[in-house]
Structure formats: structure tokens, C-alpha cells
Design goal:
The complex is a heterodimer. Chain A is an alpha/beta fold. Chain A has two domains: 235 residues, Aldehyde Dehydrogenase, Chain A, domain 1 (3-Layer(aba) Sandwich); 181 residues, 3-Layer(aba) Sandwich (Aldehyde Dehydrogenase, Chain A, domain 2). Chain A has 16 helices and 14 strands. In chain A, strands 9-10-11-8-7-12-13 form a seven-stranded mixed sheet, sandwiched between helices. A five-stranded parallel sheet of chain A has the order 4-3-2-5-6, sandwiched between helices. The longest helix of chain A is centred in the C-terminal third of the chain and has 20 residues. Chain A is globular. Chain B is globular, with a radius of gyration of 20 Å. Chain B contains nine helices and 15 strands. Classes of the chains: A alpha/beta, B alpha/beta. At the A-B interface, helix 14 of A face helix 3, strand 1, strand 13 and strand 14 of B.
Chain lengths: 454, 367
């Protein structure tokens, strides 16, 4: 790959990083921010982001081509999976959506530029201005690029210099995005740093945390607690722990041609990013009593996954990960042989590419992912939520398939139960730009307000 | 005895096979194995309902299976869910459980007197040429508890049988059950046994699981004790950790054993076995040195199969261990394990347990 050496992640793999390099990078970021970014206007930044996103959607954009050409070797995802995931992300990144995000989160699109007031505040002669942290550090933990790309976008809007720490081997797509921003506007690219090292490295992270004004992180609860314990008290911390997601299909949704559509949407949720994100479903709960039995749903989903594998294959797995799937399949094969009425399973032939397990028991199961999905029959949503008891409070997204007149009540029940995002089936791994990650505000504690009582 | 006579016939034939294949240094007798394995498959299919269901589900019945490689291998997790035995409920005097404190339902491998006697004959016939190729007997220090308080451990049963048949006077068990029924080491007793072997200049065979060895080594370090076991002493090490001790890479464990006990690394033999199997594999012959790879006896075969396709991998590739074991007379002869290994010729090099599969192993006993 022939990219210029703009970022630490561009250095050869054998070039070791040290504390002095991290400190120096942070100081350079701060200087560049003061010079090139702090004084920028929101509309200008939005224009730049919008046009960069449009570039990414063009087939001949060099960074897109590079992502799809080298991405399979660098990330493991197939070119089709990458293309689909990146398209979903960049289609959302429009001027209109960015404006809407600012209005939703900060009450006004110019909140980061000048003192503004909504109507209530104006009546009281009050206005407010929001500022971002000078140096924002992201500790990216997951296997998907989208959360990291979103973080970079939000950080640009808040005029923050940003240091993005990726896991070792996980910098490829954030790095390409950073290069594309650099390409759009070199001065803004100079307010970004991308680096990769194995998480927990005290020697590199101590100087980074000492410089940071705000740290965002994704990872396990344990990882987040460790990071937080190492931050100075003045540093703000925004952590996103691991979550699970599942789907619910109402019996009314499964009729005639609609069934095919819903099966296709369910398959889209399983194949998106090979099911590796917190928003990917582990289980589809299918309501019994309709024209399509849960078991038939499972069988049709298996056929659809076979079809998807032919057009957009799953990534190659390590022997360990494949063995995990093989061992799990073996368990269900035994159960299916012993009690075929309550357990059935469908597997890709001669590979671990996809697996569907049908169980009549509604108990939530954590999938081994990589396109391994459970389908469970339930009486209703309450039955499903009882089965998912173990993941209450740990559930991010529930994708639902239900007629409009029922969807509202389902969403209400899910909200009461603690779900933070309800979306149509098929969109689970494609949240809108303005979604509230884990039910928290997008900018969260990143911004600091100044209230002006005129 | 209401035993089906055909199983007894098979047991007699297998005893003959075991005797023949270890008495002389014959190459594995392909023909005998092939004949016996299909015969045992037919018997087990006919008399083991849970296994029969599984075979039918796969469409691989005795009529359809022509080669031992095609015999359906039962995933070992099935031993937790089903009673995989041809023995009726009243005729199972012995049961071996898989180990592990986290397991609510252990694996169960049922035996009667006949199958247990066969188990012992099989284990001794392969243990002796690997661990004691040069000695009829040796004093033994076993780090596990003795058989009486641990009747459901196949490993302890094996060590008990080995001690009874091959242990010189003075052999002892230095393990005991902790109040939570897990295994722990009586360090003082172990140390005493080591010291007395050293003083008397009698070679000692120390047998135990990896985690009990770690406890022993940690104890010796803490006590500042330096043991130099007499020449000819050796070690048999097996199993994993199950969170019962700090985990050491195999290399490191062997280096420490060698350093703290004075046993040369060539005299450390690793065993691979599990409660679902009647036979064991060893990775070297004591004193031989050189490359290590696990090998089963001629009455058992291991395949390393691709987790993607289920077919045997090429030499040097990684896959899951599948064992065909004629000594599993009353349970299921073909077992699909969750252990990852690299195929080395007709043997294998163990890597560890498959990710996300349930923990299992012989190194920690369930309550």
C-alpha cells in the first residue's frame, strides 16, 4: 500500500513507538488544532465531511478502491462485506444529517460557532455556546470501523484535535478515512493522529492519557474500567461497553410476499459485518401461531444465508474460531438427533460459513457470531423478553418486524424493558448518524457549555 | 451376568489384539483394526439407542459405513446430555465424570466389570512402553488424590491401576480433596516422598496434572527446596489448569520441572486422555528425547479434522482431534473432541481447546 507517512499508523510494522513520540504527536495536534481547526465554522466542516463521504461512495475514489482491494487481507472481511458496510456508513454522512444531528443533540446547528438560543431561552434572554475538548483521544476496541469513523466525525464537528488509538492490526480503515480527510483538506488531516498498539501498553498510554482532555473508549466492561482507573481526574471519560442485540418477528408480519422480504432483512442483519458488531443479532425471536411457523422461518433464513454466501462470502476464520463454530454445531447436531421436535439446525456444507439453529426453548443464547444465528419460537414479545432475562440491561438494539399498528406498542414494551434502540429488521447494523449510542447523547460529556444570561 | 455375549466376544478379541500388538514390535495391524472397528460399530449401533439416533440422523448406519473413517464421531459434549452406553441402568457399577467445577452436568462414561478390566488392560499396555520402557516397576509419587475419595475420575483410576501393577513399594498419592471437592496437593507429603527418593537414590516416577505440578513447583520455590531426583527418575504430566493455578506454557512448565526436580526434559512424558476415552496417547518415550507428538496405541486412531469441512487435514495443518478407540467398548468408539491440534504424520501436536467450546479436562474435579 503506497500511502504517504502522515500518521504513526503509516510507519512500518517494525518501527517501534515510544513515549516521546506520543507526547510529541499530542503537542503537534494541539498546535495544529489552534492554527487550523479551532476557528473553523460548522457549515464549512459539514461541507467538507459531506463531500468526502460522497467521494467514498464513488466507485473510482482511490481510497475506496484501496479499502476494497487491500481490505480483505487487512481486516478479514470480504470485499462485498466491506463495500456494503462502508456504503451504509457514508450514505448517512450528509450535510442534512449532520445538521439534524447538531440540532438534535445541541438544540441548534450553530451551537458550536456562536451563542444561540432556542425559543424558550430567547424569551428568557439566555443563550449558550458549546465547545469541544482540545485533545480528544479515542481508544477503539471493536472489530468494526464504523464506531471509530463516527467518533472522528463528531470530533471534527467539535473542533477537537484527535488521537485515535486502534488495536494492533485494526487501524486499516480508520487510517484510510484519515487519509481521505487529509486529502480533502490537509490542514484538517493534520489535526488527526492514528496509531495502533496492543491495548493496555502503559508506556504509550500513560503519556497519551496525560495529554488528553477527553477519552472515549469501546471494549469490555473490564477494559473500560481499567482505562478509566488510569485517567487523571480532570480527564473526561466516555465508555461504551459490549452489548448484545436480537430481533423480534411478529406473527402478523409473516404473510405472503412479505415473508420473503422479512427473511431477506433478517439475513441482511446476520451478514452485515459478518455479525461481529454489538448491533448484530444473536437471536431472532419469531412469534408462533401465524402462517409461517418459527421453524419454517429458520429454514427459509438458512436458504437465504446460503444465497448470500454465494454473492458475498463471509470472511475466512482462524482454526480456533472455526473450531468454536464446529463445536457449537456438534452440540446442536446431538440435540437435533435426540429431540428433533425442539431442536433443528442448518449448516453451510463443507464450511462454517453460516449456521441457523432453531430451538423451541426461548432462552437467549449468545451466538459465536460469524453468521451463526439462533431462531427461537415464542408466544409473544413478553415471552421473548422473559427468555432474554439474562441480557436485560446489556441489550442495545432490537430489530422488529411488525405491522405499523403493533410496532408502537412493541417499541414501548422494549423501551420499558431497557432496550436503547428499536429499529426495523434489516437495519440493525445500520444506525442513523443521529442515533444515541447505548442510549446516551452523541456528544455526551464531550462538549462544555457556556451559558450567557443577557 | 446378563451381558450381551457379543460384547464379551469383542472384549476377548480386543484383548488378543492388545496383547499381540504390544508383545511384539509389530507395525499397527491395519487389517485387525479395520475388522474390529466395524464389528464394534455394528454392536454399538444395535445396543446404544442414543448413538443409533445420532447415526441415523446423519444417515450413516452400519450398512452404509465401509471404512472406519466414516463412522460417525460423537461430539464429547454429548456425554453431558445423553446416556451414551449400551449398559442397562442397573449394570453400571462405575462411572467416570469429566472434571471442572463450572460444569453443572459432567460427562459420564459408564463401565461394568468387563469394560473396566479392558480399560485397565489397554491403559497399562500403552503406559508401560512409553513411561517405563526400561523398568518393570518404579516407585511412584502421584500428585492426585487416591482412588477411594475420587471414584469418578478416570485419571485417578488410571493412576491407581498403574500404581497397583507397576508401582514399587513406597509409592504413594499426595493429593487430597479440598472442602469444595476440588483437588489439592499435600505439599509436605509430596516433599517427603521426593526427599526420601533422593536420599535412597531410588528413581522416582512423578505423575500428575499440569496444575498440580505448578502447585508442587511453587511449593518447592517457596520452601527454597532443591530436589535432585536420582538418575532414571521421570515425570508423567497431563491435563490443563482450569483456573486452579497460574497457567504456564508447556515449555516453561517442563523447564521448571527439570530445574526444580532434576528430571531431564527427555524424561518428561505428556499424556493425552479424557474421561470419554478408554485409551490414551503419549507424546514421547521416556528417555528418548527429540520431537514430541502424541500417538495413540494400535487399537485406537486419531484423525485431525478441519473444523470447516470435517475432513482430515494435511500434514502440518491445524484441526480438531477425532479419536476412534476400540477400548471404548460400552460407550461410543468414535469421539469428536474440542481439542485443537496440528497433524504430525499419524500423530499430533496439541494446541489447546477450541475457542468458545465448553471447558473440559481432567485437571479439576467437580463437586
Amino acid at each position: 500500500m503506497n500511502l504517504p507517512n502522515y500518521f504513526l499508523a503509516d510507519l512500518p510494522d517494525d518501527a517501534p513507538l515510544n513515549a516521546a513520540m506520543i507526547t510529541e504527536a499530542c503537542q503537534t495536534l494541539r498546535r495544529n488544532r489552534a492554527q487550523y481547526l479551532a476557528g473553523r465554522s460548522t457549515p464549512g466542516l459539514i461541507r467538507m465531511l459531506h463531500s468526502t463521504a460522497e467521494n467514498w461512495l464513488a466507485e473510482d475514489y482511490p481510497f475506496r478502491q484501496l479499502a476494497l482491494k487491500d481490505g480483505p487481507a487487512q481486516t478479514g472481511f470480504s470485499a462485498q462485506t466491506l463495500a456494503h458496510g462502508l456504503d451504509d456508513f457514508f450514505k448517512q454522512l450528509t450535510a442534512e444529517n449532520l445538521d439534524a444531528l447538531l440540532v438534535q443533540e445541541l438544540g441548534h446547528a450553530q451551537r458550536l460557532d456562536e451563542f444561540t438560543a432556542n425559543s424558550g431561552a430567547a424569551r428568557d434572554h439566555r443563550a449558550a455556546l458549546a465547545r469541544g475538548p482540545e485533545l480528544l483521544v479515542h481508544i477503539a476496541g471493536g472489530s468494526l470501523p464504523n464506531p471509530t469513523l463516527t467518533s472522528i466525525v463528531l470530533g471534527l464537528l467539535t473542533r477537537s484535535a484527535q488521537f485515535v488509538k486502534c488495536p494492533r492490526g485494526g487501524a486499516f480503515l480508520p487510517r484510510l478515512f484519515a487519509h481521505s480527510l487529509y486529502d480533502s483538506e490537509p490542514k484538517l488531516g493534520a489535526c488527526l493522529e492514528i496509531a495502533a498498539w496492543p491495548g493496555g501498553s502503559e508506556a504509550l498510554e500513560a503519556p497519551l492519557f496525560a495529554e488528553a482532555d477527553c477519552v472515549t473508549a469501546t471494549g469490555t466492561d473490564e477494559t473500560l474500567a481499567k482505562i478509566q482507573s488510569r485517567l487523571p481526574a480532570k480527564t473526561r471519560f466516555l465508555g461504551h461497553g459490549h452489548k448484545v442485540s436480537f430481533g423480534f418477528v411478529s406473527k402478523e408480519a409473516l404473510h405472503g410476499y412479505n415473508t420473503k422480504k422479512i427473511i431477506s432483512r433478517a439475513a441482511s442483519d446476520v451478514v452485515a459485518w459478518d455479525q461481529l458488531g454489538c448491533l448484530s443479532p444473536h437471536v431472532f425471536y419469531v412469534q408462533a401461531g401465524g402462517t409461517v411457523a418459527p421453524e419454517q422461518f429458520a429454514e427459509q433464513l438458512a436458504a437465504e444465508l446460503a444465497h448470500r454466501e454465494a454473492t458475498g462470502p463471509r470472511r475466512q476464520l482462524s482454526a480456533e474460531a472455526a473450531a468454536g463454530i464446529a463445536a457449537r454445531r456438534a452440540l446442536y447436531e446431538v440435540r437435533a438427533a435426540h429431540s428433533p421436535d425442539s431442536t433443528r439446525h442448518w449448516c453451510s456444507p463443507d464450511s462454517t460459513a453460516w449456521t441457523v439453529v432453531f430451538e423451541s426453548d426461548p432462552l437467549f443464547q449468545v451466538s459465536c457470531l460469524n453468521r451463526f444465528i439462533y431462531v427461537k419460537g415464542v408466544r409473544d414479545l413478553t415471552d421473548a423478553l422473559n427468555g432474554a432475562d439474562a441480557v436485560q440491561g446489556k441489550t442495545s438494539t432490537v430489530g422488529i418486524a411488525a405491522p405499523e399498528h403493533l410496532a408502537r406498542e412493541l417499541a414501548r414494551e422494549l423501551a420499558r424493558w431497557g432496550v436503547t434502540r428499536v429499529c426495523p429488521l434489516g437495519e440493525m447494523q445500520n444506525p442513523p448518524l443521529a442515533w444515541r449510542h447505548d442510549g446516551r447523547p452523541s456528544f455526551g460529556d464531550m462538549v462544555t457549555w457556556t451559558d450567557w444570561e443577557q | 451376568m446378563t451381558d450381551d455375549p457379543t460384547f464379551s466376544d469383542f472384549a476377548a478379541a480386543l484383548r488378543g489384539f492388545i496383547r499381540d500388538s504390544t508383545r511384539h514390535e509389530l507395525p499397527p495391524r491395519e487389517k485387525s483394526f479395520d475388522g474390529l472397528v466395524l464389528e464394534l460399530f455394528r454392536l454399538q449401533f444395535a445396543h446404544n439407542t442414543a448413538y443409533q439416533n445420532f447415526c441415523r440422523h446423519r444417515g450413516q448406519t452400519p450398512g452404509a459405513v465401509k471404512s472406519w473413517r466414516d463412522i460417525p464421531a460423537m461430539p464429547n459434549i454429548a456425554f453431558k446430555e445423553l446416556e451414551l452406553t449400551s449398559l442397562p441402568p442397573g449394570e453400571r457399577p462405575t462411572v467416570f465424570h469429566s472434571s471442572g467445577t463450572t460444569e453443572q452436568r459432567p460427562s459420564r462414561h459408564f463401565h461394568n466389570a468387563e469394560s473396566l478390566a479392558l480399560y485397565e488392560a489397554a491403559l497399562l499396555a500403552w503406559f508401560q512402553p512409553h513411561v517405563l520402557p526400561d523398568a518393570a516397576q518404579m516407585e511412584m509419587l502421584v500428585l492426585t488424590p487416591p482412588p477411594e475419595p475420587a471414584p469418578n475420575s478416570s485419571l485417578v483410576h488410571m493412576f491407581g491401576a498403574v500404581r497397583k501393577m507397576l508401582g514399587a513399594p513406597g509409592s504413594c498419592f499426595a493429593g487430597r480433596l479440598a472442602p469444595d471437592k476440588s483437588w489439592e496437593l499435600d505439599f509436605q507429603q509430596a516433599k517427603q516422598s521426593l526427599n526420601s527418593a533422593q536420599r535412597a537414590a531410588r528413581p522416582l516416577l512423578v505423575l500428575g496434572t499440569a496444575f498440580l505440578f505448578v502447585h508442587l513447583l511453587d511449593g518447592l520455590s517457596a520452601a527454597g527446596a532443591a530436589i535432585r531426583l536420582p538418575p532414571g527418575s521421570r515425570v508423567l504430566e497431563t491435563g490443563g489448569y482450569k483456573g486452579r493455578a497460574r497457567e504456564l506454557p508447556k515449555e516453561e512448565l517442563h523447564r521448571l520441572i527439570s530445574e526444580k526436580l532434576g528430571v531431564p526434559r527427555a524424561n518428561i512424558v505428556c499424556e493425552y486422555g479424557m474421561s470419554e476415552l478408554g485409551s490414551q496417547a503419549y507424546d514421547t518415550v521416556a528417555g528418548r528425547g527429540g520431537a514430541r507428538r502424541f500417538q495413540f496405541p494400535p487399537w485406537a486412531r486419531a484423525l485431525v479434522v478441519s473444523p470447516e469441512t470435517g475432513r482430515e487435514v494435511a500434514d502440518g495443518e491445524t484441526g480438531l482431534v477425532r479419536v476412534f478407540d476400540l477400548a471404548n467398548i460400552r460407550s461410543v468408539l468414535a469421539i469428536q473432541t474440542e481439542d485443537l491440534a496440528v497433524r504430525r504424520g499419524d500423530g499430533f501436536e496439541l494446541l489447546g481447546r477450541a475457542a468458545q467450546a465448553e471447558l473440559r479436562g481432567c485437571s479439576l474435579m467437580a463437586a
